[in-house]
Every structure is written in C-alpha cells, then in structure tokens.
Amino acid sequence: MSGLQVKSRTNGEITLQEDTIRKFKESLRGELILSEDAGYDDARSIWNAMIDRRPALIARCLGVADVVTCVNFARERGLILSIKGGGHNISGLAVCDGGLMLDMLRMRGVWVDPTTRTARAQAGCLLGDVDRETQVHGLAAVLGFISNTGIAGLTLGGGFGYLTRRFGWTSDNLLSVETVTGDGRVVRASEKENSDLFWGLRGGGGNFGVVTSFEYKLYPIGPEIIAGAIAWRAEFAGEVLEMFRTLTMEAPPELTCVAALRMAPPAPWLSKDIHGKPIVALFVCYAGEINEGEKLVAPIKAFGSPVGDIIQRRSYVSQQSLLDATQPKGRRYYWKSEYLPDVKPELLATAIRHAEGVVSPHSAILLFPVNGALNRLSNDHSSVGNRDVGCVPNIAASWEKAGDDKANIEWARAAWRDIRSFSTGGTYVNFLTEEEGDDRIHAAYGNNYERLVEVKSKWDAANLFCMNKNIAPRVS
C-alpha cells in the first residue's frame, strides 16, 4: 500500500502515506484498524443497520493519551473525525465516511465513591456498566432505558430515564467532565471550572470536544425496587391510556410509567395467545420506599384484564435492562419525536389510531413522561433547555429488510405529522434522524441556540467536531 485515500472536512481527498499511517499506529496504545483488516466490518457496525458508512481508519482508544493523539492527527491533516461510544444513536453519528473514527468502547472504567455519592465513568461505558457498579452500593445515576446505550451520547444530548421525573435530565445530574479539545488539550469542565464549556456539554452533544469521562451525582435507589411491565389487549387502549394519563399528572415523582402501543412480541411474560397481536403496555418503575410502591402500583395491576403482568419486587439493574430485547443491534430503525407539554386525550386518540396502522411487528409508539424535577429549573440552566416538557413521544419504527424501508419510514412520518400538532415546538436532539438538519437542531435548543454558537466558536472554531447534530461556529 503506497497510500490511503481519506476524506477531508472540506469534502476533498487527502492521501496518507504508508509511513504516516505506520507512525500513527505506533503512537497508539490501542489498536488501529484499516478496511483490509480482520474485524473492520464489525468495528464499523453500529446498532442501527440503516447506517452503512466506511471510515478509512478506526482507532480503538485505550486511554486519554490515545484520544489526544487521534484528535491531533485528525486536526493536523484536516480529516473528518467521528466518535463512537455505545454506537446507539439513531442517526449513526458515531461512524464517518472516509475519515478517522475513535472507538471508545474499551474505555469502560467506573469508580464509585459511596461517601460523596458520586461516580466517575469513562466515556466508553454503557448504561449497564454504570448501573452494575453503582448498585453495589445501593446507588444509581440518572440514566436511560436501554442498558447497552452509551453514557456519552445519552448524557451529552440531555438524557432521560425512569429517574428523570424525580431528579431531572441526566445532564442535570452531571458534576464534571474531562474533555479533549480540538487543540489537543485535556481540560476539566464543571460549574466552577470552564463553566461555559460545561454549560454547552450538558445538552449540546459532541460539538465541543471528545469527552473522556463523566462525573455523576448518585442517589440511594435499590438494589430492590417495585417495577416491571404489564399489558392489555389493544381493544382496551383507550381506557388504559386514560389511566396512564391520570398517573402522569398525579403520581409522585418516584413513580414513572412508560406507555407503549405495539404488536405483542413472543416474550415469556405475555400470554401465548396474544403473541403477534396488538397490545398496550406500561413499563412501570417505582424507585422509592418498597411498601409505598406496592400500594401505588396495586391499582395498575388490578386494572382490567391484563394479558401479562411482571410488576413485582425486582432489582433496579433488571428493570434497567427490561427493554433491551426490544432494541437489538442489527435491525433497521427510524424514529420521529417531539416534546409535549402534557398528555392530552386527543394525543392519545391520535397515537392509538396510528398504532392500528403499524406495518412492522417490531415498531411501537412510546410515551415517556418526564414531568417533575426538570421543570423546576430555568430554561438556561444548561444547554439542553426545554424546561416546559412533560412527555416525550417516540414513534419508533423498527424492521428487518431494506426492501421495507419506504413503508416503515412513511408510517413513522405520518404518525409524527399528526402528533407534532401537540408539540411544545422543541424536540430531543438524541432522537433526531439522519436527514433532520438545521431547523430541527434549532428546535431542539430554542433560545439556547445562540449561546451554544458562542461556546462552539470559542472551543471549536475550526469545527473539527462536526460529525454530530452540528452547531456551526460563527464565521469571523
């Protein structure tokens, strides 16, 4: 090999000589993978099979020094640079075409301090890595719903999960970050140190640098909680979702119920005669005092005639992975989402109507309540903003074959067009699909967008970190 053609950030091409690549490889403690190497296709593959990009170089970083080396290499040569944490982003932002991809998945250390109730986690961690270590001490961070999601993308985009009603966005519970900036410096950002960068990182995505570790505030949760799932036949969806709506408005913040409209999967907890047929389900989590939780979930368990019910005493870790089977790696995924101020009866009727027209047995319309703690902070508390949101709907299309792309995408878009009429005008940046551009990025940040441009212009004026839902720096 006399040279390797790679793409530059200016859309041109650059030739990297063999000697340059060899020296780069020798400067890394981790592995450098090229397209002809064994394992290349596995290394570039991510959760969403709709994404099929081919980086020229994949660096599997083993530490911060490797990240610094990669950032400097990309900057000095004008290469496109992307960063892969869990690889779970719907847009496939982890993978660039023809550039350098940093694979952080081997940086998965977690250190818990039970005295200060804090945890520091490396950026390659999945949610399950953090949950497993914090639960040793009966503590938990505010994370998401799928245990094999990466903490980096989740946190930098805001993040929400079962604990959000009680404690706010994931990013609201971030204490500090370590970041490699575009000029190769390693900086710490917190409320007291580089506070402008810290403000931007709490919602602004990967626009400002490569975060190498996160420090989270922890809360006494578990190890045992009251949680699980319960489902009814879809013919009762109206009554069930009205019950869900009341819970969303009245339940204490310790209780979160996620509603789902979908075809019943062949899960062992569901009656066999309902498999493949439409259902309405609630995924329930009460992360407070056990006896109180049993009282609060009793009316849910007694409602109507469920076709499956596994709401019970269980470990917090098991609840955090309960939905994993609905999101396997290798399927084709397309999502549409909005922020809603609340849950209106008309919204529920709209969701039911579109769920009846679903074209894949794997697709679902999901409603995630997030009302509570996040609403009590000012909109400019951090860049994630959207302090008026009460519920996050996600029209989650999921299917197996490329030939079915059009029908599934059209189903999701049609449902979104109708549900959008209930929106606050905001949207969750982590749920934006590949084709959603500047107008949707502006919608995600609202009045915080211009301040994000200022932070970007200071910390990444060259826009090295552009493989994201990009906030372009100001042109001087």
Give short descriptive properties of this protein.
alpha+beta; 24% strand; 27% helix; globular
What's the structural blueprint in terms of helices and strands?
Blueprint (H helix, E strand, L loop, with lengths): L2 E5 L5 E5 H9 L4 E4 L5 H5 L12 E4 L3 H14 L3 E4 L15 E4 L6 E4 L4 E5 L4 H8 L4 E2 L10 H6 L7 H4 L6 E7 L5 E5 L4 H7 L8 E8 L1 E2 L3 E10 L3 H14 L4 E9 L14 E9 L3 H12 L6 E2 L2 E4 H5 L11 E6 L7 H11 L8 E6 L21 E9 L5 H15 L18 H8 L3 H11 L17
Parallel strand pairs: 4-6, 5-6
Antiparallel strand pairs: 1-2, 3-4, 7-8, 8-12, 9-13, 10-11, 10-12, 14-16, 14-17, 14-18, 15-16, 15-20, 19-21, 20-21
Helix pairs in contact: 8-11, 11-12
How would you sum up this structure in a few lines?
With 476 residues, the protein is α+β, with helices and mostly antiparallel strands. 27% of the residues lie in helices and 24% in strands.
